[in-house]
C-alpha cells in the first residue's frame, strides 16, 4: 500500500507541475505564435496622446486659436512618433493660417496706431510687411487709413523644406514650423539639394 500511496503522490506532484507548466508556459507560447501568424488579433495599444489632441482641437473650435496653437506645438514635441503626429501638424498649419489672416492678437503681431499722413504702403515698409497682408489681417476692404486706427501687423519670414520621401513641403516661419503641404506627385532633378530656402517677396490677400 505504501508504494501505491507514493505512486499516487508522485503523480499528483509531477502531474500538477506538468499541468502548471502547460498552462503558464506552453499555452502562452502557443498564443504568441498564433498572434504572430495573425490567427489571433493583437490587443490594441491604448492611444495615450488622443485626449491631448482632442483638447487642442476643441480649443480651436472654441475660437481660442493661440491656446490651440500652443497646445499643438507642445503635442508634436511630446509625441513625435504618435498616431496623431501628422494630423496634429496639419491642424497646426490650419490654425497658423487662421491667426495670420485674421485680427486675432498673437505674440508675433505688432500693434500700430495710424498717425497723420500715414498711408498703407509706408506703414507696410516701416513694419517690414506688405499692404496686402496688413489689409487681410485687419479685414480691410480698402487702403484708406484713419488717424488713431489700430492695426495688427506681422512680418513673416518664410522658407521651405522639401521632404522627398514623405512627399511633404514644410513651410517654416522664423525657424519654426508653420504649415505643411502634402504633394501628390514630386519630380525633382536627380541631384537636387537636400534643402531649398526661398523667401516670400509678397503675400497676396
Structural notes for this entry:
Helix content is 44%, strand content 13%. The chain has three domains: 48-100, no CATH class; 110-153, LysM domain (Membrane-bound Lytic Murein Transglycosylase D, Chain A, Roll); 156-205, no CATH class. The protein contains six helices and five strands. The relative contact order is 0.09. The protein starts with a helix and ends in a 23-residue tail after the last strand. It has 205 residues and is of the alpha+beta class. The strands form two sheets. The chain has a three-stranded antiparallel β-sheet with strand order 3-4-5. A two-stranded antiparallel ribbon has the order 1-2. Strand 4 (168-173) and strand 5 (176-182) form a beta hairpin.
Largest sheet geometry: 3 strands, antiparallel
Report strand order across the widest sheet: 3-4-5
Strand content: 5-15%
Low-confidence stretches: 1-26, 198-205
Helix content: 40-55%
| Strand tally | 5
The number of helical elements comes to 6
On the 0 to 100 scale, the average pLDDT is: 81
Radius of gyration: 31 Å
Shape: elongated
Amino acid at each position: 500500500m505504501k508504494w501505491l500511496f507514493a505512486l499516487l503522490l508522485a503523480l499528483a506532484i509531477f502531474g500538477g507541475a506538468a499541468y502548471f507548466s502547460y498552462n503558464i508556459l506552453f499555452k502562452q507560447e502557443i498564443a504568441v505564435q498564433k498572434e504572430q501568424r495573425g490567427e489571433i488579433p493583437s490587443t490594441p495599444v491604448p492611444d495615450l496622446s488622443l485626449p491631448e489632441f482632442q483638447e487642442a482641437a476643441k480649443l480651436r473650435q472654441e475660437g481660442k486659436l493661440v491656446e490651440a496653437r500652443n497646445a499643438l506645438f507642445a503635442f508634436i514635441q511630446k509625441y513625435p512618433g504618435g498616431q496623431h503626429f501628422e494630423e496634429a501638424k496639419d491642424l497646426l498649419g490650419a490654425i497658423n493660417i487662421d491667426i495670420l489672416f485674421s485680427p486675432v492678437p498673437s505674440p508675433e503681431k505688432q500693434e500700430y496706431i495710424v498717425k497723420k499722413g500715414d498711408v498703407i504702403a509706408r506703414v507696410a515698409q516701416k513694419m517690414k510687411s506688405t499692404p496686402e497682408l496688413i489689409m487681410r489681417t485687419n479685414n480691410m476692404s480698402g487702403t484708406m487709413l484713419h488717424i488713431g486706427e489700430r492695426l495688427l501687423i506681422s512680418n513673416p519670414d518664410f522658407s521651405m523644406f522639401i521632404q522627398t520621401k514623405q512627399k511633404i513641403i514644410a513651410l517654416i516661419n522664423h525657424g519654426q514650423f508653420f504649415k505643411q503641404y502634402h504633394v501628390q506627385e514630386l519630380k525633382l532633378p536627380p541631384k537636387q539639394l537636400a534643402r531649398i530656402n526661398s523667401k516670400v517677396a509678397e503675400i497676396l490677400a
